[in-house]
């Protein structure tokens, strides 16, 4: 009998990499994630190749860099021609289920301007079957609450205000008004268990999404008091926002424009105005929401154990992007700092040797997730895919040509809720940056603004810009060339391996593979 192969892809939202116990966050209580790390491989140097949510999830689920999929910001459409994980899984006989969201705006050429999907932040990516919808506008979750008998307030998001008539919006040690058994994390978990129990003995793929620890930063009881603010790591930042913002015009713009209302229901004031105590409380709340997710995952893992499916299931835990959390006086996911781009990646491959929780330092990127899943299931990895399967790394066979640096991008053109172009004097196609980073150096190239260069050995937190320092001029040149070479190597290549010949169409990829096999023989 052929062994069935299941895939559980867990995608949390806004969970940064340094809030993982296996990577040093000893203050965090996540026993189920700890188990996954023990039974799998935890990748120390993993990044999303784009932020915020829409571009990040487009890269995660298409395996394409931002430069190729071009869904460059939330609300910007994703070209329908791109292959994605959902479509690819259908080609090998899977009916890919999705709980949560992908923040995808549809290709306007496939529908009309009155399509309601163009009135929301994003919807579901083609190819997946929703079995636990959150979008549009969280209707799936709010409908579930109403069906459970919860009396929704007129302004539905008021459920995430702190409990108590005298509570003030903002960083708080009070619980939110919704109980844990009715939280959005509980909703996603119930949907997951309902789906899994319905599948019975049939093989399955499940994208299990969680909204947390995404803002609003307020936790359900008892998670609101699980961590003390004084236990949290202190923020890494300059003496004040003005000193921080002097590093670069784009950074200065965001320090001036980020508002607390995007992170705390009904809060007022600038994000950069949060003091040390407020940041510590916000971080304690952030950790509490992580522990709630971990408890929810424990229910899913327990069911897979009980039904003996755990040993047949590839489990991947990752996030769409990170969170500044007060570092560099910033909130959210933006810019070029590591806190926004470094995210968790934990892979438990039942075919790989159990090594007692290996920590892998190889450079990996979010575009590697799609090809890894297809590789494990025996599917075909699209030629256009920019990522690579990490299965050889899991099995201890590091390819000699594995990447030697990380790359990621941020497009900061105007969208409905953010208007950087006018403030920075940029055109729509000029508001972008690309980062090339390794263990020693970090280069940030802007389309129309001054570059940045950091010596990570001397300045790991990236306060001192050396781009104009003559002592580093040669290295700045070298890393700029790395960026250019990277873009040339990864230019869109869906059809570039075909050629017309006197004998008809030739697939040069197939020809090259055959030649390599003959040489090996």
Automatic annotation (TrEMBL):
Q: Which InterPro entries match?
A: Alkaline_phosphatase_core_sf, HdlasePehA, Sulfatase_N
Residues covered by the Sulfatase N-terminal domain: 5-378
Q: What is this protein called?
A: Alkaline phosphatase family protein
Keywords (alphabetical) are: Hydrolase, Metal-binding
Q: Does the keyword Metal-binding apply?
A: yes
């Amino acid at each position: 009998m052929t062994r069935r192969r299941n895939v559980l892809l867990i995608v949390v939202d806004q969970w940064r990499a340094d809030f993982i116990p296996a990577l040093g966050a000893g203050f965090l209580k996540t026993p189920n994630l700890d188990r996954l790390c023990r039974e799998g491989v935890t990748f120390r140097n993993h990044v999303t190749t784009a932020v915020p949510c829409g571009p990040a999830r487009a890269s995660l689920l298409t395996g394409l860099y931002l430069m190729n999929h071009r869904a460059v910001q939330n609300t910007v459409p994703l070209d329908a021609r791109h292959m994605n994980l959902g479509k690819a899984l259908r080609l090998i006989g899977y009916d890919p289920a999705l709980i949560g969201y992908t923040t995808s705006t549809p290709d306007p050429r496939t529908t009309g301007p009155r399509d309601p999907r163009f009135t929301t932040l994003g919807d579901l990516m083609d190819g997946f079957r929703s079995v636990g919808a959150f979008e549009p506008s969280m209707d799936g979750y709010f409908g579930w609450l109403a069906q459970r008998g919860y009396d929704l307030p007129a302004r539905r998001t008021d459920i995430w205000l702190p409990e108590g008539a005298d509570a003030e919006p903002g960083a708080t040690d009070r619980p939110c008004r919704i109980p844990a058994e009715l939280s959005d994390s509980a909703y996603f978990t119930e949907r997951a268990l309902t789906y899994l129990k319905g599948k019975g003995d049939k093989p399955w793929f499940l994208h299990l999404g969680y909204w947390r620890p995404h803002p609003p930063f307020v936790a359900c009881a008892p998670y609101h008091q699980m961590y003390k603010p004084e236990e949290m790591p202190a923020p890494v930042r300059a003496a004040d926002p003005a000193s921080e913002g002097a590093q670069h015009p784009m950074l200065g713009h965001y320090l001036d424009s980020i508002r607390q209302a995007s992170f705390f229901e009904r809060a007022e004031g600038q994000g950069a105005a949060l003091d040390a105590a407020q940041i510590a409380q916000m971080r304690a709340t952030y950790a509490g929401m992580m522990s709630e997710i971990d408890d929810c995952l424990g229910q899913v893992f327990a069911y897979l154990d009980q039904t003996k499916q755990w040993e047949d299931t590839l489990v991947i835990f990752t996030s769409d992007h990170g969170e500044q959390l007060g570092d560099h006086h910033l909130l959210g996911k933006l810019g070029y700092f590591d806190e926004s781009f470094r995210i968790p990646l934990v892979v438990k491959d039942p075919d790989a040797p159990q090594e007692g929780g290996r920590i892998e330092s190889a450079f990996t990127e979010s575009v590697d997730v799609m090809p890894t899943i297809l590789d494990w299931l025996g599917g075909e990895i699209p030629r256009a895919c920019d990522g690579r399967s990490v299965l050889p790394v899991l099995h201890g066979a590091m390819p000699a040509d594995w990447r030697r640096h990380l790359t990621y991008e941020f497009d900061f053109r105007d969208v409905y809720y953010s208007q950087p172009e006018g403030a920075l004097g940029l055109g729509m196609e000029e508001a972008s940056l690309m980062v090339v980073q390794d263990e020693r150096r970090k280069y940030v190239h802007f389309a129309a603004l001054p570059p940045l260069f950091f010596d990570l050995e001397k300045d790991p937190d990236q306060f001192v810009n050396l781009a104009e320092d003559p002592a580093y001029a040669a290295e700045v040149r070298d890393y700029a060339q790395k960026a250019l070479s990277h873009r040339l190597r990864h230019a869109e290549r869906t059809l570039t391996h075909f050629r017309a010949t006197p004998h008809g169409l030739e697939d040069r990829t197939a020809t090259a593979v055959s030649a390599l096999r003959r040489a090996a023989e």
